[in-house]
Each structure stands twice: as structure tokens, then as C-alpha cells.
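hey so i finaly got around to running the thing on LysM domain-containing protein from Cellulomonas phragmiteti. pasting the sequence first so u can double check i didnt mess up the copy paste, my clipboard has been acting weird all day
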Amino acid sequence: MSAMAIAPAGRSLRGVRTAPSATASRAPGPQLRAARVPDRVGVGPEGAAGRLRLTRRGRVVVWLLALSLAAGVGGAAASAQADGPAAGTEVRRVLVAPGDTLWGIAADAAAPGEDVRDVVLELMALNELSSGGLQAGQTVVVPAG
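ok and heres what it spat out for the C-alpha cells, dont ask me to read them lol
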């Protein structure tokens, strides 16, 4: 990697050799000029804000992105379906007698082969019970069937 020292015009740095003038060694021919760079991005020489300019390919890409986004949103909206009203669960009321337990009521209500633990959890959710404890005289809703 090399380092390059640039001295102000008309001066030289001590111990550093400067390159000869670029115009002295160049053959006659077309001269290149540096383009004017604006001080701020998006502002032209007149001070007016510049517009974003897209090439033809850029416009095609933007349109394709917009169409794919619209198709995705439209497809998602078309496939959305609202659920109808949930079918109600047919229930019967059971009056808790002294000595009855939630497990015993669930075992009576369970279908053959159905796990009683699942029925106990269903009864707790259906009756909004925080625990499995019941009191005599309490009414419990049990799924019929």
C-alpha cells in the first residue's frame, strides 16, 4: 500500500518528491473536466429538490413488486373465512348430593372408552370451577350424551 502526500499549490513538502505536472506530460488531445458535484444530495445547482428518476427496468420492477403485493393481500383476504356460530353443547343439570365428587360425576358422564380426566377438565371449564371441590346442594352442568 502506498501513501500519497499532496502539498498546497506552489509549495512542496520537505523530503517528498512531487510528481511532475499532469499537463506537462500529457499529449495534446481532448481534455477531461471534473463534473460539478452538488453540496447536498437531491439538490441541483439551482437549489430545487431533484426528482427520483427510475429507468424503464426500475419502473417494471416497481410495478411487479406492487402487483405481487396486491395479489398476496388479495389472496389472503379471499381465503379468509369467518366461523359461523359455534354449535351449542347439550347439557343437563346435576344436583350435587352429600359425598358426590367431581370425579364420580365425570365418570358417570364419560362415554365408554373416554378418559375420565378429560371429562373432569371439561366439567371444570364448563362450570368455571377453580378446583375440583364440590359442595352438597351445588348445581353442576354436565354434557348430555
